[in-house]
Amino acid sequence: MLPATIDDVPAAVGRLLADVFTERRSATAAVSDRVADLTDLIGDFVMGGGKRVRPTFAWAGFRLAGGRTDDGDAATAFEVCAALELIQACALIHDDVIDRSDTRRGRPTVHRAVAARHRERGWLGDPDHFGTSTAILLGDLALSWADDIVAQAPLHPAVRERVVAVWTAMRTEVLAGQTLDIVTEAAADESVDAAYRVMRFKTAGYTVSRPLQLGASLAGAGDETVEVLGRIGDGLGVAFQLRDDMLGVFGDPAVTGKPSGDDLVAGKRTALLAVALRRLDSDDPAAAARLRGLVGRPLTPTDLDDARALLVDCGAAAEIEEEIGRLVDEALAVLDDLDAPADARADLTAVAHALTRRRS
Questions:
Q1: What region, left, alpha or beta, does residue 132 occupy, with left being phi > 0 and alpha being psi -120 to 50 degrees?
Q2: Hey, which family's this protein in (predicted)?
């Protein structure tokens, strides 16, 4: 069943993917029941949470480009939009391995869950290594299932050509962006430019701009519409990641599903941190040294309070809030000028505000 409104997209994606996981379990069970038991974790992970942001933006792009929701092509288009959630599953499962994270969405991360299962069953070898190895493969499998959905979609040849162009660009960008992220951390690149470049390719592209373009391509949109939606998506995507960076430091774990301050503990080179260090290096080098000493290691509640105070007092948090507002306003101004159905423009505007609004 297709979503009746933009608010219905998450539930509709969930229903569609539940069927996908049932079908795929039959395939993995043919290999081994033990393998199927482990691949069930992909479905558990996807169905256990998430806002379905990427399929929502893709469906918004479909409707903005004039895609009709009352014919057979719409069902195919929605399946391709839903496949983005499997790309997201791959990215998050791998990201948690890279960051050595213990929890995601308030539950153990996939590699930790697999390690725990290894211990419970008394299997041979190192449980943590087994968990990491299996999680990498499960992320790869989620990516391959996403590709299968696109490859098997009965699209018109001209539409398929455009869809494949966006899809392949998106996959390269998100994986190269993830690589850029870990290279930036390893090189200790604290620059604001580096932080924004990581955001652009690791998150903004596959979160907003490419999904919008994918949906528009599924609707048969021309080059100009696809290009404009990409520009809108770039701004909204960076704003979305900036909001996520703020939540990573100041957010409530009950809302984010991850320990508060996890980004600081992981040593993530976020724009928030980069702006703070730039300001403090200029105005208060001793405070800059204190902040650097609080990044990339376990933090006590007092440590976390100290880090937050430094980020706020130097004006970095306020600068990021201002930048979020600017990016959203500029993107929505472009949207207002787009020749698109008014209800579709209103839906994207509402989603943009909901995902980037201040929550504290």
A1: alpha
A2: Belongs to the FPP/GGPP synthase family.
Q: What H or E segment, with its residue span, contains residue 214?
A: helix 210-218
pLDDT at 360: 56
The HSE-up count of residue 285 (CA atoms within 13 Å, CB side) is 0
Domain ranges of the chain: 6-356
User: How many residues can be counted in the chain?
Assistant: 360
Identify the bridge partners of residue 195 per DSSP, sorted by sequence position.
Answer: none
User: Quick one: which H or E segment has residue 96?
Assistant: helix 72-99
Please determine, looking at this structure, whether the domain spanning 6-356 carries the CATH number 1.10.600.10.
yes
pLDDT per residue over 165-221, tens digit each? 999 999 999 999 999 999 998 898 999 999 999 999 988 999 999 999 999 999 999
pLDDT (tens digit per residue) in 57-94: 999 999 999 998 877 789 999 999 999 999 999 999 99
The vertex-312 CA angle with 309 and 318, nearest 5°, equals 170
Residues 86-112 as b or e (16 or more Cβ within 10 Å = b): bbbbbbbbbbbbebebebbeeebbbbb
DSSP per-residue string spanning 6-67: GGGHHHHHHHHHHHHHHHHHHHHHTT-HHHHHHHHHHHHHHHT----HHHHHHHHHHHHTT-
Cα 20 to Cα 12, 57, 83, 111, distances in angstroms = 13, 21, 10, 22
Cβ contacts of 217 within 8 Å, gap of 6 or more? 65, 159, 162, 163, 165, 166, 226
- 323, 113, 91, 50: which is closest to 210 by C-alpha? 91
Closest alpha carbon to 236 in 204, 211, 213, 214: 204
Q: List beta partners, residue 108.
A: 103
Q: What's the CA dihedral at 59, 63, 67, 73 to 10 degrees?
A: 20
Q: How many CA atoms lie within 13 A of 17 on its CB side?
A: 31
E strands present in the chain = 103-104, 107-108
| Phi and psi angles of residue 207, each rounded to the nearest 5 degrees, phi first | -90, -45
Phi, psi (deg, nearest 5) at residue 94: -70, -40
Closest CA relative to residue 212, chosen from 56, 95, 350, 45: 56
